[in-house]
Amino acid sequence: MLFRAPFLAGIAEGRVSVAFRRWRRPTVKAGGSLHTAAGVVSILSVTPVEEADIGDADAAAAGFSSRAALVADLAPDGTLYRIDLRFAGEDERLALRDPASLAEDGLQRLGGRLDAMDAAARSAPWAWRFLELIGEQPGRRAADLAGLAGFETLDFKARVRRLKAMGLTESLATGYRLSATGAALQRMRATSPRNHG
Q1: Strands 169-171, 176-178: parallel, antiparallel or unpaired by DSSP?
Q2: 58 Cβ contact partners less than 8 Å away, ≥ 6 residues apart
Q3: Which of 95, 121, 157, 161 is deepest in the core (most CB within 10 A)?
Q4: Which domains does the chain have, with CATH numbers?
Q5: From first to last of its 197 residues, what are the pLDDT tens digits of the chain?
């Protein structure tokens, strides 16, 4: 579920508390959350509604100047849903992207987590490989990177989300790049004695 910048600003400021979307099936669920450019948005409820149920107050709460403007913005097909939401705060991953925010042994711990993820994958270790690919080719399409890594695109994206949750990568308009923490971790590994000799 995506929000255009003005609506994200409204959510962060508390002016926007509801959204309306037409979907074949909901892409969010009650109790979930979205990580957006403005921060974390909590999804409080997702309810099917009829277009006739939308009033002027609903349109204002959704960040529109009028009911007509909201209705004109809706997709033409699919079931109409009302999504009640609220701003939950800054994205906690932002702090993780700055290596200065980590404890003294933070990079070593992150490296240990990636080692464990690769060990758990057994015949198809991926964590360090994905970090390397993203570092070498920032902004490259996920489908291209997935092919280079030998993974299906959806599986690749799901695994990159795990790296992102650790503060190691950042999404771009197309593809990804390493965060400052991801780059520092990669440099640490490159200079580790176990990778030489």
Answers
A1: antiparallel
A2: 18, 20, 67, 70, 82
A3: 157
A4: 5-91 (2.30.130.30), 94-192 (1.10.10.10)
A5: 888 888 988 998 999 999 999 999 998 999 998 877 777 899 999 999 999 999 999 999 999 999 999 999 999 999 999 999 999 887 665 556 566 666 567 788 888 999 999 999 888 899 999 999 999 999 999 999 999 999 999 999 999 988 988 889 988 889 999 988 889 899 888 887 655 44
